[in-house]
Amino acid sequence: MSPPLDAGDAEAVRSAIGFARRAQGTADVPVGAVVFAPDGRLLAGAHNAREQLGDPTAHAEILALRAAAREYGDGWRLEGCTLAVSVEPCTMCAGAIVLARVARLVFGAWEPRTGAVGSLWDVVRDRRLNHRPEVIGGVLARECSALLEEFFAGQRDATGSFE
C-alpha cells in the first residue's frame, strides 16, 4: 500500500514523463526519471538510452541517479532526495535506488513483467536491506502507460509480431 500522495508527486511524475518523451522517435523505450533535492530543486533528469549508448545499464533511473549524485555533492548518497520515474523500476534500478539512499520513490505505471517495486519483486522494501525508501506508485499511471503502449504498438509489424 502506498502512502498518501505529496502535493508535488503528480508534478514530479509529469516531469519524468517530459524526459520520457525525449526518447520518442528513437529505438529506446520511453521511460523518464528525475531526481529532486530535499528543497525541491531539480538535480537531474534522463530518459532510457540503452540503444542510443549501446549500454545495458543506461536506464533512465541509472542515468538520472548518476547525474544527480554529481550535482548533489554528497558523493554517491542522495539522502533526502526524491526520484520520480514514469514506470516502476526494474531490479537493477531498484537496487541502485536502495544503494543511493534515495528517500522517496514516486512512479507512474506499474510494470507487471519486470517491476521490482511491488509487481514482480519488491527490492526496495526488502527488510534485509539497510535502506528502504518511501514508495508511492501509480501516479498518473494511465498517462505513463499510454507512452509505453504507443511505443510498443509502433514496434509491431503488420503481422502483429515484434520487428
Automatic annotation (TrEMBL):
GO BP terms, alphabetized: tRNA wobble adenosine to inosine editing
Keywords, comma-separated and alphabetical: Hydrolase, Metal-binding, tRNA processing, Zinc
Co-factor binding details: Binds 1 zinc ion per subunit.
Transmembrane intervals: none
Matching PROSITE patterns: CYT_DCMP_DEAMINASES_1, CYT_DCMP_DEAMINASES_2
UniProt entry tagged with the keyword Metal-binding: yes
Record keyword Cell division present: no
Recorded superkingdom: Bacteria
CMP/dCMP-type deaminase domain segment(s): 7-120
GO molecular function: tRNA-specific adenosine-34 deaminase activity; zinc ion binding
Cofactor(s) named in the record: Zn(2+)
EC code(s) of this entry: 3.5.4.33
UniProt cross-references to InterPro entries, sorted A to Z: APOBEC/CMP_deaminase_Zn-bd, CMP_dCMP_dom, Cytidine_deaminase-like, tRNA_aden_deaminase
Catalytic reactions on record: adenosine(34) in tRNA + H2O + H(+) = inosine(34) in tRNA + NH4(+)
Positions annotated as active site in the UniProt record: E61
Residues that, per the record, bind Zn(2+): H59, C90, C93
Family under the similarity heading: Belongs to the cytidine and deoxycytidylate deaminase family. ADAT2 subfamily.
Functional description taken from the UniProt entry: Catalyzes the deamination of adenosine to inosine at the wobble position 34 of tRNA(Arg2).
Subunit structure: Homodimer.
Protein name from the UniProt record: tRNA-specific adenosine deaminase
